[in-house]
Amino acid sequence: MNVYSPRLSRLIDALRRLPGVGPKSAQRMAFHLLDRDRNAARSLAQALGESLDHIGRCPSCRMFCEDEACRYCSAARTASGQLCVVEGPADLMAIEGGTSYRGRYFVLMGRLSPLDGIGPDELGLDLLQSQLASGDFNELIIATNPTVEGEATAHYLAEMARAQNVAVSRIAHGVPMGGELEYVDGGTLAHALSGRRPV
Amino acid sequence: MNVYSPRLSRLIDALRRLPGVGPKSAQRMAFHLLDRDRNAARSLAQALGESLDHIGRCPSCRMFCEDEACRYCSAARTASGQLCVVEGPADLMAIEGGTSYRGRYFVLMGRLSPLDGIGPDELGLDLLQSQLASGDFNELIIATNPTVEGEATAHYLAEMARAQNVAVSRIAHGVPMGGELEYVDGGTLAHALSGRRPV
Ligand SMILES: [Zn+2]
Ligand SMILES: [Zn+2]
Known about the structure:
Chains A, B: It holds the Pfam family RecR_C. The structure is a homodimer of 199-residue chains. In chain A, 46% of the residues lie in helices and 11% in strands. By secondary structure, the first copy, chain A, is of the alpha/beta class. Chain A folds into 2 domains: 6-54, RecR Domain 1 (Helicase, Ruva Protein, domain 3, Orthogonal Bundle), CATH 1.10.8; 71-170, Dna Topoisomerase Vi A Subunit, Chain: A, domain 2 (3-Layer(aba) Sandwich). In chain A, helix 5 links the parallel strand 3 and strand 4. Chain A is globular, with a radius of gyration of 21 Å. Chain A starts with 5 loop residues before the first helix and ends in a 5-residue tail after the last helix. The mean pLDDT of chain A is 91. The site of one zinc ion has 7 residues of chain B, from loops.
């Protein structure tokens, strides 16, 4: 096989560990950084170092957090009495950026997936349990993804909330606003039909 | 729009500067590194720093090079009298790994592309010129890609070599070994037909 010089090999190997990056892309990235954009390489090295040193997880909501006080766990948000559970940071950002919801969040950083060894412990559900038991919240909004695993997770979370007498809701799934029926997949359409409401 | 905390935003921005990485992939990469694989993040930061500090270009062949003496510019290789021009480092590695060629190389790090501002200066052709004039070489093997720009570059290089009385050859293009005619694109097939040889 092709063997690059030691440092170049190490760089290509390190780039390959990024999700979605295969051997060819890793090579192309390494050449681009070394040949075309050394500033980008420098910025990336620096951003990685800084992030590793300063970005942790919020002890309450598990979102990535740089400061002592998580911006998503303020007293004002807690006062809303609402707690929204999402699978990942991007989901939190989508709700925060696309809706007017300003309650608290809980970021699972995954979904229940027994086959992959992801159970309640991996998702911090003991922490969620204590928050549900605290009396701070009167509604748990479940915003896990509408996949098989997301639905199983939602079911599990709903049971947890009910056991603490916290009301449970699930965000609605169906035909996207502006979507045309003929372009919507069958599963979504079936879900939309069975979830129909009287008007 | 969604706004992440400052360091996380910087990390996502830095990842976006990698070729082929859009906003969604950059986000996914950042979350993966921070949440799942901090070792990979550490390795990448380190590999980038090391590479920037130690990887340069060989002053003779323009290949990436870490040491004083480029492994592709040895006296034994020069003694072959052959100089093979390729567009990029991956091309050099492909020839080195897939063939028994052990002559010298010259890596253009690009191809002539006047519209993109890439002319002879950007490809180090003055350096190639002096090597052709040195008397060290009796054959210039042109292995640029069979694209419009690669062909134009090949033509330009051939003229340079002829002016120095260095024999010129171009690697063969046609139907790949083991390829089936019906699956080969029309351009390749036309090239293969017009380049036919008596048997
Ligand atoms: Zn928080
Ligand atoms: Zn060299």
